[in-house]
Amino acid sequence: MGGLEHANWFMSALFGSMCLIIVVSVLLAQRGREMFIRRIPGLNAIEEAVGRATEMGRPVFFSTGLHGITIVTLQALAILSYIVKLAAVHATRIVVATASATLYPVLEESVREAYTAADHPEAFRSEDVRFVTEEQFAYAMGCVGIMAREQTATNFFFGAFFAESLILAENGRALGALQVAGCPDPVQIPFFIATCDYVVIGDEYYAASAYLTREPTLTGSLIGQDIAKAILIALVIVGVVVASAVGGADSATNNFLLNLLASGAQ
Amino acid sequence: MWNSLLGIFHPAASTSALIWRLILAVAFSIALLVLLHRFLGPRGRRWLIAFVTFAGGLYLGLEYFLPVRGSVLWPTGMPNPNPDRAANILTPGIEPIGIMLSVVGAFTVGLGIYSLCQVHGRNVAQRRPGWHNSGAFFLAMSAMLVFGLWAHYLPDQDAPGGRLPWQESTYELLFGGIFMPLQAATFSLLAFYIASAAYRAFRIHTAEAALMMAAAFIVMLAQVPVGQWLTHGLPTTGPLAFFRLETLGDWIMSWLNTPAQRGIVFGVAVGGLAMSLRIWLSLERGTFFSEQG
After folding, report:
1. Tell me: the pLDDT tens digits for A33-45?
2. Which of A156, B150, B155, B284 lies 20 to 30 Å from A199, alpha-carbon distance?
3. Minimum-distance CB partner of A127 among B119, B130, B261
């Protein structure tokens, strides 16, 4: 199944209502409404991981994965920004590696701003934000080289990872680093679970900036996305019940509701 | 008007037109950058970034959601330049926007190379431990750059005896003979990493790990002939057919693994939507570059 080139009316209505829910949740949160976020162990571990590097007097390593400027890497940047502020306060060095030349200047600026926001602009070293290469496995080996040479105490892998995920995380583990990973790709999550100490799974990845900063705008958006997810779950249940009632997919081709639900997936 | 505006993004008709376009584009870009740098303070820059982000998102969003027609541009009724793709009035702008993004992205490659030279140059200059690796980087980059460009711009000629010109064969040796085998060797290391990671994951120390081990064992056995042979005595139809390893393995993958993966994908998609909205409306700007205003 390929993606839709243009939205049909059902997709537009569904998408529009989800956007509206998220925006309304943001507005409610900005007006001071209390909102609860469940505990996410992978994100709680960030502070412990940076603290470990501080105690050992060794640097922290952060990889943003292979993508350039995408939603996935922008979220990784938000997490990185938090980690840099934490590391700056603890006077711990952080080395950041990217595989995208497009992302590199944004990354450098973002790290510089985080050091400034933490009142330690003098701690920023431009050579600690590195463009390694755009080649997948050369990037993996370059990162492994950085981990080995710098003897990093903690490794963070947040971003879009593919086959190189296991090379990075397995070598990091062999070097004795505490590792925290987050990746929205369900294919790579098992590799990280097998090799990292803490893993941020699925939509927890996009909850990170709200969870870490507790900013009302971001918290509201997180609540909104949970309501939108509940709507999708309800639609799945309706689809399952109707498909079961009409006797399976083959005899369901003339069912209006099933055709409507399936139109979003063509 | 709209089509003539889009025309400047299409290939030039002649070499002289291309040169003129290049000169004008460079002059326009430099003038724009100088003006922005001169007259925009930090606050103005933030507003400009927010405006460009909003306008870009609005254009691409509207292009996706506006109604479309196959043969004409909706709603103008003008002929669709690409009848194979349903289009509205904003569709013809999608390709030029993609090209513009590629051009902007290409400029950043220079910054990436600068970063590499900065890190490795310092290693060589200060004779840090492992500085010879940084020296190897400069050697490799120079060799690939020189022979890559030389081979690319070499005039087409019939090589004697069907052999490649020496510049091209040197490039082939560097790329196909050294770089590609190194990539393949790194990829092949994955087999060993998977084995060691799987060993750790499948050590039975909790009930969940035991369950995972059992599921993995069935799925792996179902993929190989010996696994299918183990249960070949069971009937192919009826209730007992479910316990044939190939059926059981397929059931685990289709009925347990796939729904779990799709559940994660649902969450990720909605999370991505919320993140996109925050970026589009500049609600998350404070996380990256400046405090929220």
Report:
1. 777 888 888 899 9
2. B284
3. B119
Evaluate whether residue A3 is within a structural domain.
no
Question: Does A228 lie in the same domain as A197?
Answer: no
Could you say which DSSP state residue A207 is in? H
In a domain, B222, yes or no: yes
Exposure letters B257-274 (e unless 16+ CB within 10 A, then b): eeeeeebbebbbbbbbbb
Residues 99-118 of A with CB under 8 A from B: 101-102, 104-106, 108-110, 113, 117
Amino acid at B263: G
Helix (H, G, I), strand (E, B) or coil at B239: helix
Q: Do B197 and A127 touch (CB under 8 A)?
A: no
Number of domains in chain A: 2
CA distance A65 to chain B (A): 15
Domain count along chain B = 1
**Do A167 and A48 lie in a common domain?**
yes
CB A206 to CB B201 under 8 A?
A: no
Is residue A58 within 8 Å of A153, Cβ to Cβ?
yes
Interface touch A205/B270, C-beta < 8 Å: no
Optimal mutation site among B118, B120, B278, interface A, most CBs of chain A within 10 A: B278
Q: Determine the structural domain holding residue A249 and report its residue range.
A: 9-35+216-263
Does the residue A144 lie in any domain?
A: yes
Same domain, yes or no: A16 and A133:
no
**Which helix (H) or strand (E) covers residue B77, if one does?**
none
Question: Which of A124, A84, A203, A81 shows the shortest CA–CA distance to B287?
Answer: A81
pLDDT digits (tens, 9 = 90+) for B263-292: 999 999 999 999 999 889 888 765 555 554
Q: Is the ipTM of this complex over 0.90?
A: no
DSSP of A91-139, one letter per residue?
A: T--EEEEES-TTHHHHHHHHHHHHHHHTT-GGG--GGGEEE--SSHHHH
Question: A95 with A16, same domain?
Answer: no
Q: Are strands A60-65 and A154-160 parallel, antiparallel or unpaired?
A: parallel
Q: Which of residues 46-105 of A touch B (CB under 8 A)?
A: 68, 71-72, 74-75, 77-78, 81, 101-102, 104-105
Q: Do A131 and B270 touch (CB under 8 A)?
A: no
Residue B208 forms contact with A (CB below 8 Å): no
Given a contact cutoff of 8 angstroms between Cβ atoms, the answer to whether A37 and A222 are in contact is yes
- Of the residues A38, A69, A131, the best mutation for testing chain B's interface (the one with the most B CB atoms within 10 Å of its CB) is A131
**Any domain includes A2:** no
A123 and A180 in a single domain? The answer is yes
